[in-house]
Amino acid sequence: MDLKQGVVTRVDGKRCQIHSEQNTYHAYIPHKVIGVDPKTSKPLCVGDRVLFIEDEAEEIIVKELLPRYTKLSRRAIGAVAKEQIVASNIDQLLIVTAVYNPPFHPGIVDRFIIAAIKGDLQPVICINKQDLLHKDKNKERIEQVIETYRQLEYTVVCTSTKTQQGLDELRNILKDKTTALAGHSGVGKSSLLLTIDPDLTLVTKNISRKSRRGQHATTSVTLNPLCIGGYVVDTPGIRELNLWETSVAEVTNYYPEIAALSSHCRYRGCTHTHEPKCAVKEAVEKGEIEEFRYDSYYNVIDSIENPSMSSRPVAFHNREKPF
């Protein structure tokens, strides 16, 4: 029985779909697979490179997980601390949010930026539904947030499937890369992909009128080829994102404008949350650091110190003040 190598394109419980040498195999995932980290909630994820065999009963069985060079992961939901790896061996993370309907959440954008950097992925921010921006009473604030991300040298693309705004730029970003899409339900991830590649087999749903939240269109993680070259990983909408193995001390590193002022605080090891003579809090009060970024930073720190509390970021339209 010769070992074959392939890439996992879908996982459904104890079974997975593997693409290898132009063929698709439906394989069984046994209890023990070589190379699987016991700290992970599931043995395999989309994008994994695996070795598999076909046994005497013509059953396809996964034998070994090869090393992952990048990953998108989070802390699995539940009491036991486990890492849930959503996708692996991808180049970039397209963080999709909407300017309106559902409400804009810069907090979830920042959390995904952290997850991307921790997983050695390039974060790209996609602000979708630009055709609805005129309906939002916070239009100027949202435009300022977009400008802030650009000033921090993040790649930002503003899109609309209705007006076609930004779609050529998005195509160039996705072309010949393997990209995972992430964001809340209803922000238009599947609609964007279908506009770029109509041959993709994806489902779209409307926003719930009652909750103003998106309804899950994508129900499982899948790896799909793009007609323009490259691959996309479409993920179910994520309402909350608990960061995996992130310490309070390292959070500052993911906020460059905060890290730049840390050495000016009175106390070494200042967390910039409650300490007096904090250069970061003073900069926020002076308007030198955007308040929404500090709110995001504060909420990440709080979720690490209080992991039992919900990590769902507060909507931009109803943001709580940390001080």
From TrEMBL:
In terms of domain of life, where is this protein from?
Bacteria
What are the residue boundaries of the EngC GTPase domain, all occurrences included?
A: 88-239
EC class name: hydrolase
Among InterPro entries, the record links this protein to:
G_CP_dom, P-loop_NTPase, Ribosome_biogen_GTPase_RsgA, RsgA_GTPase_dom
- Compartmental location: Cytoplasm
Q: Does the keyword Magnesium apply?
A: no
**Which GO terms fall under molecular function for this chain's record?**
GTP binding; GTPase activity; metal ion binding; rRNA binding
| Cofactor (UniProt) | Zn(2+)
Q: What residues does the CP-type G domain cover?
A: 82-241
Which Pfam families does the record associate with it? RsgA_GTPase
Q: Could you state one GO biological process linked to this protein?
A: ribosomal small subunit biogenesis
Chief place of localization: cytoplasm
> Which CDD domains does the annotation name?
YjeQ_EngC (cd01854)
EC annotation from Swiss-Prot or TrEMBL: 3.6.1.-
> Binding positions for GTP?
128-131, 183-191
| Binding-site residues, Zn(2+) | 265, 270, 272, 278
Against PANTHER family, the record matches this protein to: SMALL RIBOSOMAL SUBUNIT BIOGENESIS GTPASE RSGA, SMALL RIBOSOMAL SUBUNIT BIOGENESIS GTPASE RSGA 1, MITOCHONDRIAL-RELATED
Q: How does it assemble?
A: Monomer. Associates with 30S ribosomal subunit, binds 16S rRNA.
Protein family: Belongs to the TRAFAC class YlqF/YawG GTPase family. RsgA subfamily.
Purpose of the protein: One of several proteins that assist in the late maturation steps of the functional core of the 30S ribosomal subunit. Helps release RbfA from mature subunits. May play a role in the assembly of ribosomal proteins into the subunit. Circularly permuted GTPase that catalyzes slow GTP hydrolysis, GTPase activity is stimulated by the 30S ribosomal subunit.
Q: What is this protein called?
A: Small ribosomal subunit biogenesis GTPase RsgA
Taxonomy of the source species: Bacteria, Pseudomonadati, Planctomycetota, Candidatus Uabimicrobiia, Candidatus Uabimicrobiales
Q: Which gene encodes it?
A: rsgA
